[in-house]
Amino acid sequence: MIPEVVSFASRAGRYRILSFRCNDIACTCTETTFKLREIGKRKQGERPSKIVIRVDVPSWKENSPPARSPEEAELVAEFLRDYPESERNRLRDWYRERDHTMRRLNECRLDPAEVAEGLLFSFRDILAPPDDPFWVCPLGETWFDDGDVKYLVTEHYCVNPACECNQLHLAFHPIRHDLEAPGTYVAEVAFRAKMSLDGRVDLERLVNADVATARRVLADWERDTDEVELKKQNWRYEKMRQIGRRSMVGYTPDRPAEPRQQQRLDSAPTDPTRKRVGRNDPCPCGSGKKYKRCCARSDEDALF
Fold first, then answer.
1. Please, is 125 exposed, middle or buried when counting C-beta atoms within 10 Å of its C-beta (0-12, 13-18, 19+)?
2. Is 151 helix (H, G, I), strand (E, B) or coil?
3. CA nearest neighbour of 239 among 95, 98, 104, 99
């Protein structure tokens, strides 16, 4: 990683470096902004030097450089030239992965029978690599602190175009250390909630929590969900609905869909050995469906 504080041969003094990249997965820009702020002792009334550098990551060239003094221009040139190649590659990989994720979302089609049945889907269901329990999902999974307890909050969506629920389903997983595997963590569902697109949250079902705790956490969650986050959630909801509509194009069921089996999402944890089953393997229960579309929905323990 690049040091947070650096010195330059072209200019005396030390600079603190902050970097900001666009984390909007729907954005097509490839820009990272670096802010260099001079630190250390200065004469009374002298303001620290600040330099902002907007870099196009694939080409590693500055976008629209402003007017600068020759000394500042030389410092920027040195910064761009000496920025570690490993860090440049890391940023390029991040943007490539973002674009790859968007392509998968824009091309994804789900099993239309499962869509018609009203099963809930998460972005992890769509994007997760096979048999990689340590993969970090870039969409629909949020870390949330409530006092001393850290929660992983996962979003689940009904993508049936015929449904007008206009809500997403939330599963709250408190994080705890895995005593059987030091250095890893376990996230088990404590309770579930429904969230409307305007931010109102209602407790849906208790799994391993008391009512008072669940309601307190939901109140904190609702209070912390600002307009920016609501816009992101609405974007994720609409993206999932697009996938549902695309999946149903040309679909004519040979038989009526079976009633939705809600217990898949709310039953007790299953045998831990289930974790060895690949997400795309046939489910061990014998249903004929893929594991991720069947009993995986009742075994939401996740290792980190």
1. buried
2. strand
3. 104
Residue 42 pLDDT:
66
Rounded Cα gap, residues 146 and 215, in angstroms: 12
The two three-digit tokens of residue 254, written as one number: 């040979």
Where does 9-128 show beta strands of DSSP type E? 11-21, 31-39, 50-56, 61-62, 120-121
17 with 55: CB under 8 angstroms?
no
**Residue in the block written with tokens 């038989």:** 255
Give the phi and the psi of residue 184 in degrees, each rounded to 5: -115, 170
Residue % of the chain over a pLDDT of 70: 80
Task: Check pLDDT > 80 for residue 234.
Answer: yes
What 8-state DSSP symbol labels residue 273? G
DSSP string, 32-58: EEEEEEEES---TTPPPPEEEEEEETT
pLDDT value, residue 114: 93
Residues paired with 252 in a beta bridge: none
Predicted confidence at residue 22, as pLDDT, reads 82
Q: Map out the domains of the chain as residue ranges.
A: 5-98, 118-252
Beta bridge partners of 157: 121
Q: Is the pLDDT of residue 298 over 60?
A: no
Are 143 and 151 contacting, i.e. CB atoms less than 8 angstroms apart?
A: yes
**Average pLDDT of the residues of the chain:** 82
- Contacts of 38 by beta carbon, 8 Å cutoff, 6+ apart: 13, 14, 15, 48, 49, 50
Lowest mean pLDDT among 113-117, 147-151, 167-171, 291-295: 291-295
